[in-house]
Amino acid sequence: MLTKTITPNEKELFSSSADFEEEEVVSIEKLKAVWAKRAYQLAQEPEVEATGQTLDLLVFRLGHERYGINVLNVREIYPLEQFTPVPRTPNFVAGVFSARGRILSVIDLHAFLGMPPQEYKEDAKIIVVTNTNPSSEMTNLEIGILANEIENVITIFKDDIDPALITRSGGNADYIQGVTNDLLEVLDLDVLLENKRLIVNDEAM
Predict the structure, then answer these.
(1) Stated pTM of the model
(2) Domains of the chain, with CATH numbers?
(3) C-alpha dihedral over 17, 20, 21, 23, to 10 degrees?
(4) Which of 5, 78, 143, 181 has the most CB within a 10 Å radius?
């Protein structure tokens, strides 16, 4: 059997060649991985921007709850200092106040919705709201709603409002347009202001 002695130079040459082949294999595997990743990304459907009808809401706190009302229903916001309690009225009528010469009732929504009345601090606000339904006999009815805190105005998509099957407002789901993912209860004031309990002798209490 013939044998061949490998010289040191040949050993170095073979070693370099093996390293090159290993590096080449690794590089191809890396390329395959990159191609596979890019193919996966290209196959994914692009994110679709949210579209649809939007709703601008004034967000306020009432006790531990957060409510949103359509900004189209909002006329003005006043400090609580202009508020005057009135005795011998329904428990949801907290009092009255003067808004640019108009004497308006001030409603405690918690009591109106069948929940315990709320206590309000000096920094509470009165939100003057009105019915915007042009076909309603209660159109342009104005009342004040007590709020512990005004948060901000937000814009949401109507499709993001889930139906109000069960709400913290008890059996008054008719007045709740729906609930968002962050548990914001969206009130339907046009429906709420159709309630004739808010009217006495054809005038706001």
Answers:
(1) 0.69
(2) 54-204 (2.40.50.180)
(3) 160
(4) 143
